[in-house]
Amino acid sequence: MGFWDSEQCEYCNGPIVEKTMDLPRKAGKRYILIMNVPVGVCKKCGTKYYTANVLKTMESVRSRRKSNAEIPMAVYSL
Ligand SMILES: [Zn+2]
């Protein structure tokens, strides 16, 4: 049983499935990539949902002194 079982999308009432994703997040002036984040994703419209717990953990990884890896990131503007 996943956290998102029997949950529905608040926009389209579609079913929400849990996926593990790598997410870029803004941290101050730079972006960081957080890997293996459990995300609830609406099967119909693709809206992403995060549990309070996951959001809290994502905040806390930023304050870790050492990251797992440093990669150069290309940034484009439309
Ligand atoms: Zn939806």
- Secondary-structure-based class equals mainly beta
Task: Just give the CATH class.
Answer: Alpha Beta
Strand order of the largest sheet: 1-2-3
What small molecules accompany the polymer chains? Answer: zinc ion
| Spatial extent as radius of gyration | 15 Å
Helix content: 10-25%
Order of helices and strands: EEEH
- Oligomer, anyone? single chain
CATH architecture: Roll
Beta-strand fraction estimate: 25-35%
Outline the structure in words.
The chain has 78 residues and is mainly beta. It has one domain (1-55): Roll (Ubiquitin-like (UB roll)). It is built from 1 helix and 3 strands, in the order βββα. A 3-stranded antiparallel beta sheet has the order 1-2-3, covered by helices on one side. Strand 2 (30-42) and strand 3 (48-49) form a beta hairpin. The longest helix has 10 residues, at 52-61. The model has no long low-confidence stretch (mean pLDDT 90). The chain binds zinc ion.
Question: What is the secondary structure topology, with strand pairs?
Answer:
Layout: E1 16-27, E2 30-42, E3 48-49, H1 52-61
Antiparallel strand pairs: 1-2, 2-3
The structure holds zinc ion.
Task: Provide tags for this entry.
78 residues; 35% strand; Ubiquitin-like (UB roll); 13% helix; binds zinc ion; three-stranded antiparallel sheet; mainly beta; 1 helix
Give a brief rundown of this model.
By secondary structure, this protein is mostly beta strands.
